[in-house]
Amino acid sequence: MQAAVQNFKTEATALPHADALLWLTPAQTLSGDGAPAWIAALRDTGAASFAATGLPTPAWEGWQYTHLRPMAAAAFRFDAGGDVRAQDLPETLLPDSHRIVLVNGRLRPDLGTALPDGVKLTALMDVREPEEELATVGDLAASPLLALNCAYMRDGFVLDIAPHRDIARPIEILFVAAGDAPAAYPRVLYRFGENSGATLLERHSGAGAHLTNLYAGVVLKQAARGRYYRFIDANDAAVHVSRTIVRSHKASDFQGFSSVSGVAAGRQEFGLQLLDRGISSSIGGIYMLKGRQSHDFTILADHFDEDGTSVQHFKGVIDDQARAIFQGKIHVHRPAQKTDGYQSHHALLLSDQAEASAKPELEIYADDVKCSHGATAGMLDTEALFYLQSRGIPAAEAKALLIRSFLNQVLEKLTHDDARALYAARIADWLGAEVEADMAGLGMAEEDAA
Amino acid sequence: MLKIENLRATVADREVLKGLSLDIKPGEVHAIMGPNGSGKSTLSYVLSGRDGYEVTDGSMQFMGQDISEMAPEERAALGLFLAFQYPVEIPGVTTTTFLKTALNAIRKANGEKELDPASFLKLQKQKLTELGMSAEMLKRGVNVGFSGGEKKRNEVLQLAMLQPKLAILDETDSGLDIDALKVVADGVNALRSPDRSFLIITHYQRLLDYIKPDVVHVLAQGKIQKTGGPELALELEKNGYADFYGEAA
Q1: pLDDT tens for residues B108-163?
Q2: Does A387 sit within 8 Å of B88, measured CB to CB?
Q3: Can you give the pTM of this predicted structure?
Q4: Residues in chain A closer than 8 A to B120 (CB atoms)
Q5: Is B92's CB within 8 Å of A442's CB?
């Protein structure tokens, strides 16, 4: 493993720095498009920052293991002009959901459904006075991908859930890539008003090579309840990079989850910011990688105030020469007494060339806190495999059963039954047809028996 | 049913079975007793086809077929069952899912129709009742958090569900108190039938008080050293295995 990491360092460090300018050139077509002043200003800031840094290299803190070669190598095209017809869109994940559709990052009201009362959708370019969550970007020099997202700022939306409203049916946000290697740089903000509740299903879809560089903000006002489930479809040629910042206010409850069924390269960053007291915020995910795919979950849970709970639960399987990275940190600031922080990452390696790198971190400045983390990487249990085979279960099916049960364990914590079933189905899909459909929900048979 | 002739087998390049022969007819209960390191568990793994246990000479015929090159699941489909000395914990797979997958895999391999969930659950309930077991353990991960006794009972439940032709019980009595031992023995005795055979592998005679064997073998130094009736077990209990070390050395 060490050798492979060394190799990668050498190659990636050798990226010509001038590439930054190639990345930025297409963004010039945006100038003079009548964007609101705050957007125009952010574009300039982002472009200037990216021009100075270029893409991060493994020499950067937090980028030691991450694999951006597929992003650097492919000639992704901004505004490549691809389109999809309504009949070519995938079915909604759940039959009864509302839907917002974006094609190559661009909001397409014509392809979506009507939204219910209490939900308001505003295109990004129509936002004249941005709130801080939309316009604040932090340290761009340390976040070149975000800088690039700023440089291309145009597409995306703000979704507002009105205070005191509980939106019964899930809202699906479908990102579709279409055309010849399109690049998309959407920016979205999901805003849960005080004491509101909603379930969001964000799906990333589309055949062929494409780049998605997403910035997603999530805001939960006091006592809001937000569920945010992301699904990244299997695609050997797609590059997905995203940063999701979840800002939680007093007594709110956030549950986020993401699954990756395979990408050429991916990095999903999640920042959980527990800004006031009594907040619960959790993020989890599963990844299933094979071939030469690589994916990185980078998580930071920031506790700023007392009595907060943050949970990170991640699991993944890695086959062939694929690589997975998990970097998870819990940062407990001085005032955040009585913090409860938990983090776990478990990787299952299915081949001896698969790689898992994990970097758990705790940074704690308060003295009355409970924080723990656990990380493992291992192969399939040969004893368990033999046990299953000795009961007549063929080797391939036994392996699939063990992998599925390994991954299913992180789904148990999800409070939305349909979302849990969707993730279970993704696992079954990845494992292939030999898995019986009726086994997708492990709990079903037992309930009948009781 | 099972005919083993002059079987030699190695584990990690070390020869553990050194010319073992055994003939079990339908309906018979055989016990193999032997000291630690005599090759008892190796025999059970070689018979069930565990990776790393290699047959180097001799033959194993089960149901008239040479099984030495078969995968474990093929042997199971033919009707071979191994009750493990240390049943494996499988978190995340419930016992019900495990049993259903196993039962249907075996049915499928034998060209039978797979059981639909309703028929399966009915069968499972019936077996549970017969064995006096609670449905509670079916909802948990296979053997996860089970006591030693519960694990062995779960083995008996699997035995009852899968209805094998030959069941090998590998040190089934180890780690059981007398009450648990009786429960397990009752379960096994209920499954005795003219066309089902048992091979009981044990260090101690105790289990044989509850499951009466037809034939008792002494295994030492990788070979059957002596064969007799149930009285042989009592004799061993009294005199120990010391005699057989001498003989084989």
Answers
A1: 999 999 999 999 999 999 999 888 788 888 888 899 999 888 899 899 999 999 99
A2: yes
A3: 0.88
A4: 445
A5: yes
